[in-house]
Amino acid sequence: MNVVTPWYPDYASSYSGVFVRQQVDALRSLGAQVFVEVPLVYPAPSGPVPQQVKVAMRRLAESGADNLFPSDGSTTWIPSPVPSKSGYAGRTKSFASSISLKREFQPVEVDVFHAHLGVPTGAALDEIGDRPLFVTEHQSTLSTIFTEPQARDLYGKTIESSNGFFCVSTALRDQIVDALGSEAGDRIEIVPNIVNLSDIEFVARTRYQFSRWIYIGTIAAHKGIETLMKAFKSYRQRYDRSASLTLVGQGPHVAWTEKFISANGLRSAVHLAGSKPHQEIGPFMVDADVMVHLSESETFGIASLEGIGSGLPVVSLKNGGADSSWGDMERECGLLLELGTTPDQIADAVAGLADGHEGLDLQTGRKMVESRFGPTIIANRLMTAYETSLR
Q1: From edge to edge, which strands make up the β-sheet containing 244-248?
Q2: Is 212-373 a CATH 3.40.630.40 domain?
Q3: pTM, full prediction
């Protein structure tokens, strides 16, 4: 099979598309032969891609395909010039063109294609592919895609022509139904991301003392970092002067975070750990008391589920992903707060959970994560779908 995804770990980003690689690894563990193609956006001037650029790319490929399409094992990266202001429809066209060029020099002989993202990736494969097409949707930019009429039409066509269209959460499917109608929703199945706990030790907490907060993820405004910092400051001032916060990750809001730390006298209380490989995050969770994630919108929310799997209570907003994945286990796993909850209210909620933790049952939480999102479980569902399409 051939997986095509715009997000996949490489030398520049060990985090980008980790969930896609986990899916690939799980499929391979069941005996599937998986080839991965990664189209990469190369910004180009507005208007058609200049003919000299196309000629130069072809000449470079003719001199040796690896010169234009670098590979690492069975993964190949594909440069895709995307004109500015061309929108998602333009990106789809560029992906289709660059993938076609790559396959001219490096053909793939497979039974099925599996695209990650309906637009641009799935729509590009729908245009050029000649095998059964499956699509997994997990991007947070659907609202932007659906504001572009041409991209919206491409998205609907991709759902109709695919052999299987999967969303990683009900929140994403609901968003598609709102935009495209119930008929589109009838063709969508929920197949969540894999949550692999093999590198994450479970620690049974015998008492709950929420002095050590942890956040794992991108340090970005849309992840609720500002609300998190303000909530932690409030909790420390009003409930626990010894409280600490560890931030594991990197991102565009690091500078803002550092300024907030300095301005509020939190230098000794907040630890910016930077990005860590997945296999190294387990010890950070072992040393924490509670995971706090305050993103207002998540397509799935792997970090929260990994926290639950490690035995950590999780405090999150009702952001779509968390509701879908563990909302029915909130009592056992932590707290889900309404959107718009203020930093002071979040601090109060954490303190209240510490005082009223009798319902927490993180051992059951870990079993829930393993039974719903384990690698073999998800991979078997995908393999069944692939095999059904080939009968």
Answers
A1: 270-274, 244-248, 212-216, 290-293, 314-317, 334-337
A2: no
A3: 0.92
